[in-house]
Amino acid sequence: MKQINVNSKFFHFLFCLFTVSQFVAQNKQLSIEGSYQGRNLFVRNPPQSDGFGFCVSKVLVNGEILPASIQNSNFEIDFSLFEIKKGEKVFVVLSHSEGCEPEFINAEVLLPKSTFECVTISAENSGLINWQTNNENGSLDFIIEQFRWGRWVESGQVKGNGTNQLNKYTFQLSPHSGLNKVRISQIDNTGEKRSSKEVSFQSTISKVKMAPAKVTDFLYFKASGKSVKTKFEVYDAFGNLLKLGYNEKVDCQNLVNGVYFVNFDNTTEKIIKIDQ
User: Fold this and answer.
1) Which among 138, 92, 93 has a CA at the least distance from the CA of 115?
2) Average pLDDT of the residues in 21-25
3) Alpha helices (H) along the chain
């Protein structure tokens, strides 16, 4: 009789273990993170694979259960229920059944937008850029741009703080000779660029010269008779970018014979590639 009780308890344990393992296997998670931008998140909630009930069984926002009905084909995650402030980080987890996939309909609402206001921006002759911003709504990179070769060229990036208070930034760029124009910009998930006003400074570095005009192996950059590093780009006659970098010389050995255009310092010159 005692043996029967032991076996009974053992089989009951196996049954419970199997039930729990089946429950875990039948539940999956879908998550998303970002920052609250003042808009709520919507979820597409399909039926379960067996047709009984809906896919999502539980919603967690920063570890707290969403206190709202989710038994609908679409439901809203109202962040005001959690007293989340604009710009704060959010992490949303959907627990759902196996065999069905819920979907965040408007996931882009958690991506930061470029809303910064450039309070001040200045540039020193050395190329040190200083700027202050406010009204940032989420952390985005600031792109430091320098006007050369007839267009705005990226010189580097600085991570934005993403806060609504006064934020201060600095960046050291490599100036070219003569008048330099710079600005800072951001690009958010819309793909649109927002830029500050431009500021100018006069560089004290010497004008860079390039040689030879007819090249067989290497192009060399010099200023005041000395080798210097400069930002450069090499284009073919059809406008295709072939080389770019920051160096005191350019390896042209793998270029085929023909005409090329080289952007360097703050100018553009033509070269001809020839055999030795």
Assistant:
1) 138
2) 38
3) 2-25
Token pair of 199 as six digits: 């500021």
Q: What's the mean pLDDT in 147-151?
A: 96
Averaged pLDDT, 168-181:
96
Quick one: which of 194, 38, 60, 185 has its CA closest to 110?
38
Name the amino acid, one letter, at 110.
Answer: L
Q: Please compute, for residue 84, the number of CA atoms within 13 A of its CA located in the half-sphere on the CB side.
A: 26
- Report yes or no: 241 and 263 within 8 Å, Cβ to Cβ: no
Strand partners, 161: none
Kindly tell me the sign of the dihedral angle through the C-alpha atoms of 196, 197, 202, 205.
Answer: positive
Domains of the chain: 2-110 (no CATH), 117-202 (2.70.50.50), 209-273 (2.60.40.10)
End-to-end Cα, the chain, rounded Å: 102
Beta strands in 45-192 (DSSP E): 56-61, 64-65, 74-77, 89-97, 103-104, 117-123, 128-134, 141-148, 151-159, 167-172, 179-187
Four-residue CA torsion sign, 112, 114, 115, 118: positive
Q: Convert 182-198 to b/e letters by CB count within 10 Å (16 or more is b).
A: bbbbbebeeeeebebee
pLDDT tens-digit readout, 241-272: 999 999 999 999 999 999 999 999 999 999 99
**How far is it, in rounded angstroms, from Cα 187 to Cα 198?**
17
Mean model confidence pLDDT for the chain: 89
The model's pTM is 0.73
Please calculate the CA angle 202-203-209 and round it to the nearest 5 degrees.
125
